[in-house]
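> tool_call: predict_assembly(chains=two)
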Amino acid sequence: MSDLQLSEPLARRRFLVRVVAAVHAAIGGALAFVLGTAAVAPGFERRRATWIRAGAIDRLREHEPVPVTLRVARQDGYAQVVDRRVVYLVRTGERTVRALESTCTHLGCRTSYDRERRLIQCPCHGGRFDAQGQVVAGPPPAPLPALPTRVEGDDVLVEL
Amino acid sequence: MKAFDRARDWLDARTGYRALVRHALDEPLPPGTGWAFTSGSILTLLLAVQFLTGVVLAMYYVPSPALAYDSVRFVMDALPLGWLVRGLHVWGASFLVVAAGIHLLRVFLFGSFKAPREVTWLTGVLLLLLILAFSLSGYLLPWDQKAYWATTVTLNIAASTPLVGDLLAAVLRGGAELGALTLGRWYAAHVLLLPAAIVVFVVAHILLLRRHGVSGPITPVDGPVVRFFPWHVVKDTVMMAAVFALLLTFALLWPAHLDEIADPADATYVPRPEWYFLALFELLKYFPGPLEPIGTLLVPGLIVGFLLAVPFLDRGGERRPWHRRRLPVAAAMAAVVGGVAHMTVLGLLDTPARYDPDAWGPRSIAGLALLQQPDLGCRGCHVAGGPASDLSLTRVTRDEEWLLHHMADPVALAPGVRTEADPAPRPLLSRLQAQAVVAYLRRVRAGAAPPEVSDEDRLAATAFATSCVGCHRVAGEGGQIGPDLTTVGRRRTLDALARIIRDPTTEYGDTMMPAFGERLTPQQVEALASYLARLR
């Protein structure tokens, strides 16, 4: 008899504890989903590429990288920013141009072109690339990435 | 599982946390403590929701007039579920005010504030004031029209304080004008000072509650003592779930509103505070001129003073609110609650009808039509990689006059673009066209999605924006020399409208309005009349 009296409220208590835990978990879960989405989602945004006019093809000499600064206006969350990106344009034929990123693939320093040595050089750790962006010396683990290009009339367009 | 238990034992041996949890949960409650005693838990939940949604909003918000509006607009339009986070925060503020009011009335009716619980009541009244301070500082932050104008009114109310009014307003404003410095200090108050204060007072409130115990039912009930956990917590939990579901429903069904960006030059906007300040707002109408401090300070001050004094006016052990010993204070409380409710209702009834803020007037439609023209001169510079950002990215950040000058002579405002061969300004758009483009850009910045417009309406809108808009107004855009045409379709038939546009003297005899039969093509007149006839 005394066992029964004890066990019933205990069973009820256990049930109530579960109900309380479940409801709080549901409220917390709903909040976590809404807030988590809003907090995390922008981290997975990818930037959209656009074709940018980079200059006239006539000004380029074959196999000689020419650095050009491109302005890319884009939406940065709620702000508008203009990115300045430096790329090398390398004429590879009559109507063909290659565009290379100017950021060293080693640790992200800005490279520059040495006309006398005909090499793209990184000032940080001595990385060197040839006019095609291939590594010729130093620590860079990969060639300079090429960007999609096309030629329209006299203009070279680069996709950034 | 064993390892988990061992870790908990280890932690308990060093912190004694189990005893703390047991102390928190095992509180004995007087028998008969029922559903009425869940209002405090509801407030705790709502405060937690405000805190958590506030943290996410603060990730994106920028307290600067240049970006505040756009950052909130970004949360509303671009951030996944951002609109819902803001909806929960905005509705949560209203829910908090209501829940705090209900909690206060519950405590009053049950006589739960009676000795020795006077200080618990005092901390509660201060918490209510803190919640109102949160609301007041919060709705300046989006920097939209409502934010700007409601805050202007608040600052002027502060300035009406006798003796120290100007000083007080200057401190609240932080500068000569309502602007960047005001926004900064209200933001700091909203996200740093007030949360810290509310945490201190909530902790004090709960510690005092534990010190004196829950007051329980008005007339003591016989029976065994109830443990707080889980016997009362389950009631709290059910109520919290119901309120949370209601809050979520409100936030989902009626997303938080964001007006157009604050415009100190706009005389058409009628400022209205949030509903919980409407009673105060309404009160000011009854105390004009030198009597104003009565409405701005004396009456609100007396109400707060009364609330603080309640436990000292309504003394003695009697808890039944209908008992004659409690009657005077209960009547005063009823007068306060009734008065606030009455003034709030008057304020709600008095809300002026405004045109639908999401409606597109003909001027902005004309601007949209102009910007869609393929040979638009703006694209000479506003292209990807060009000297100015692409039109799809361009956002109105300058005032209207600057923009109109820019469109009349774009080169003058873009140094270095004008060549020696081309020294003369070449207006890209007429002034009226430029105004239409500005109207369009402002609508877009205010978050309105461009509507689907038929070719005929496009023609009508363009004709309106270049011929009629100087004198007539539709949906808040345009001049005021002639009648407002926002609902002209109710007054005039299609035929009458076409006739008036061609030659107004047929209808009015003597009128300032010129005849447009010669100036517009028959197609334009027809499209315009058909468009206007549909404005109802």
